[in-house]
Write a structure and sequence with these properties.
The chain is an alpha+beta fold. The chain is built from 14 helices and 22 strands. It has a 6-stranded mixed beta sheet with strand order 1-2-6-3-7-20, sandwiched between helices. Strands 10, 11, 15, 17 and 18 form a 5-stranded antiparallel beta sheet that branches. Strand 13 and strand 14 form a beta hairpin. Helix 11 packs antiparallel against helix 14. The radius of gyration is 23 Å and the shape is globular.
Length: 436
Amino acid sequence: MIRPGEASRFLSEFIKLNTTNPPGNEEVAAHYLEALLDKEGIKTDIYAPAPKRANILAKIKGKKRGKPIILLGHVDVVPADAEGWAEDPFSGAIREGYLYGRGAIDMKSQVICLLMAFIELKRQGITPERDMIFLATADEETGGELGVEYMVKKLPWLRGASFVLSEGGCIVEEDGFQHAQVSVAEKKIAQFMIRAHGSGGHASMPHSNNANDKVVRAAHRLIDFRMPFRPTPVVTRYLTALLKGNMIKGHAFSTLKEALRNERFRTFVENHPVYNAILRNTIALTILKAGEKVNVIPTESTAQFDARILPEENAERFLKAVAKVAGKDVEVVSSGPYDSIPSSYRTDYFRMISQAVRKVKGNAFPVLPFLTTGATDLRFFRRFGIAAYGFFPITLSKEELFRMHGLNERISLQNLEEGLYATQRLVELLASYPGA
């Protein structure tokens, strides 16, 4: 049986392994997980696509052949500067009931919970109906080329999975109300850069062919452009379940289509970062580059934008619209979008997630399909038509969610234990599922 405090101890040790990407160094994390699995008599394989980069795979064989179920997590994390943190981001320190560290939410805590639930199958002598795969990968935070993308090429049988469970949703608490977000789809990445050229010269003699001026004006047009609301079926289902019957800024919500005609409701949505992001394409100005000396007008200027577009959006059409808004003084250079194919939420797997959550939270607890605004490794599996959901049954407040990738990323020890229990229930349900 899982022993009290195991999850927090393992997570603290795991966070101490600095797997910031770049450069990654996921090899140390793979060997840490390997040691935990080895103690339980579970064979592992490590796949290294580059020096110090590693992915680890373990399997519990099922009763019969069939499409496997994959428990997927990534072990790399985004950078963290210790300045401003209550505890060092790679200390795994516990303070006032919280475990601090980069990766506490994204997603070392879920990796540990998936690992422990996987190990518990072995401890209890449970033989799953079909093969259960634990897969922890590198490189998710910079695109997944050395992680999941590498693994599905190296091991083509992974493309035949029946179901993949990973990150993307959780149990959210906002204004005292809780609900489970199960990510069945995610927005596409459509990052682009605008670039302008101009005449250089001494800054004491300004002129009208300044590359910086061109980029700034174009950037202003893009920032001020109001992207239209385009509700997708998943988002319509999600927001209707949350808001139906509520008064929103004096407007009684009945249907999303009707509500979006109301100016006050639209303002409410625009001021809610999550609702705004799941209802429209978004662009965010992230990097500005130009000039090397304050008294010299540069000949080239660039601005980079992180754009996230809805799954149904045509990327080429979106980028043409961007170019039109930006204007003729700049060129738009795109890195190209990733695929984003939604998974159906009308599946036995969604029902199992609902069952596991309600085992912890009660029979009436809302479990809703959700559109993730960021990109995850699940897209590599969805492109093969595999049902792939992002969900970790841990409760996070809105304030805690916004710590992800930010200062003082942390996780409540109490919520970690609850999340582990619910993950264990879910993995047991998945192990007992014979499939269609």
